[in-house]
Design goal:
CATH topology of one domain: Pectate Lyase C-like
Structural class: mainly beta
CATH architecture of one domain: 3 Solenoid
Largest sheet: 26 strands, mixed
Oligomer: single chain
CATH superfamily of one domain: Single-stranded right-handed beta-helix, Pectin lyase-like
Distance between the termini: 64 Å
Radius of gyration: 22 Å
CATH class of one domain: Mainly Beta
Number of helices: 2
Helix content: under 10%
Length: 435
């Protein structure tokens, strides 16, 4: 179906007309070149494709704005899974219209946002003016997604994924001041909708452009752990707890403030949607509990990655502070596992190639050039060095141009094991284990 919109009709009418076509399903195409103001959100369901022809530009409008995504799948609100959704050729101008922490669905923060989706394709998507809070693309609880030929720039994350499996991000360019790609199995209470493992991914032929502030990471992998709710438990912003088969997150007024005494939970949350207080503490309902008490990243391949920006390339991170605590004291840290990095090209000296406050094992790096300090391995807040398993990395066919003293910086007691096969340059150490 070819959609006929008139730029002069304005955002409310354009949104209503486009929504009517999306309600019918099938392939919907906006073909006439022009700038079209859309207020959103547009709801898209299963077996639906939304295409934009050459010269079509969609601009977000603040008129009748509802603090939510531009496009969001129906399953976000119905609780059902959507499948076979495709968005192709979207050129989005945010025009400064952003999301808020308290979006129309708490924790879902992408201009393109999807919760509970299978077989999703986003292709040829461009957005060059992300502002403070809205991600370029946000996908939570998913199976089988393809994000291809993206060009995303601005202040916030380009692609932000939460729990899911089988994903590909390829042939893309990022120029973001925050993370280009965030694989956040855990996150702040209002920075993701759901929590859990991110598994079986491929990220290939992507460029981290030297644009924006040199903060964040090209790819951040963030994990965390949670427990059952117990009367008298100490909580803070973003604490996760399971009660009667459901997962909840503490969601304090923002920004969180320092406290002289611990915040103690005495009444469990029992609601099944949104944010509600229990014993004076606001909890956000997250999702039915899947039986797991941790989440992180495993079985992910990075291939042909070009790092042009002098920031950290890959972050294996846990999060602490007033905003969140990935792993509260007494809980076991999850482990990032089974990563392959093939063809990582540091085109400049990076702050760090890898930071690893998060435990990580079975990492293979090959056919790469790594400039800057290769590994920073600190210990996360209340954890001890002996709580970490040995971090083992095999470097094969890797060039290290920097001096040897810039290879590794770590907390005493962290155990790192390196193996070098066919490596070159001044900056690598002989095979062995660091104690």
């Amino acid at each position: 179906m070819i959609v006929i919109l008139k730029p002069e009709d304005g955002p409310v009418k354009n949104t209503a007309v486009l929504q009517k076509y999306l309600d019918a399903g099938g392939t919907v195409r906006l073909e006439q070149p022009g700038i079209y103001d859309i207020t959103g959100p547009l709801l898209i369901g299963s077996e639906t494709s939304l295409e934009f022809g050459p010269g079509v530009i969609v601009r977000r409008s603040a008129e009748n704005h509802r603090n939510g995504p531009l496009i969001v799948n129906r399953g976000t609100f119905s609780g059902e899974w959507d499948h076979h959704i495709r968005i192709e050729g979207l050129r989005l101008v945010t025009g400064g219209v952003d999301l808020t922490h308290f979006s129309i669905y708490p924790g879902l923060r992408g201009h393109l946002a999807f919760l509970r989706v299978r077989d999703l394709i986003v292709r040829n998507y461009e957005c060059l003016d992300l502002t403070k809070l809205g991600y370029g693309i946000h996908v939570c609880t998913f199976e089988n997604i393809l994000l291809e030929r993206l060009h995303i720039e601005g202040d916030k994350d380009g692609v932000h994924l939460s729990n899911g499996r089988n994903f590909t991000i390829r042939d893309s360019r990022f120029g973001t001041s925050d993370d280009a790609i965030a694989l956040n199995a855990y996150d702040y209470c209002l920075s993701t909708a759901t929590y859990g493992w991110l598994e079986d991914g491929l990220i290939e032929n992507c460029h981290d452009l030297d644009k924006g502030k040199p903060a964040g990471f090209f790819c951040r992998m963030l994990g965390g752990a949670w427990t059952d709710w117990k009367e008298g438990m100490e909580v803070q912003n973003s604490t996760l707890a399971v009660y009667q088969g459901h997962l909840y997150s503490v969601c304090l007024p923002l920004p969180p403030q320092p406290r002289e005494t611990p915040l103690i939970s005495t009444v469990p949350p029992t609601h099944r949607a949104g944010i509600a207080e229990a014993g004076g503490i606001p909890w956000r309902y997250v999702m039915p509990h899947d039986g797991r008490y941790e989440g992180s990243c495993r079985r992910i391949t990075f291939r042909d990655i070009y790092l042009h920006k002098p920031r950290t390339g890959f972050g294996f991170t846990l999060e602490g502070g007033l905003w969140s605590n990935s792993v509260p004291k007494g809980l076991r840290m999850p482990v990032i596992q089974d990563l392959v990095l093939d063809g990582i090209h540091a085109e400049c000296e990076l702050r760090y190639v890898f930071t690893a406050g998060h435990p990580a094992q079975n990492i293979r790096v090959m056919n790469s050039t790594l400039r800057g300090t290769v590994i920073l391995a600190p210990v996360f807040q209340d954890q001890q060095a002996e709580d970490y398993p040995v971090m083992d990395i095999v470097f094969s066919g890797v060039n290290f141009p920097q001096p040897p003293e810039k290879f590794c910086s770590k907390t005493p007691g962290r155990k790192l094991q390196f193996q070098f096969i066919g490596c070159s340059g001044e900056g690598w150490k002989r095979p062995g284990t660091e104690d």
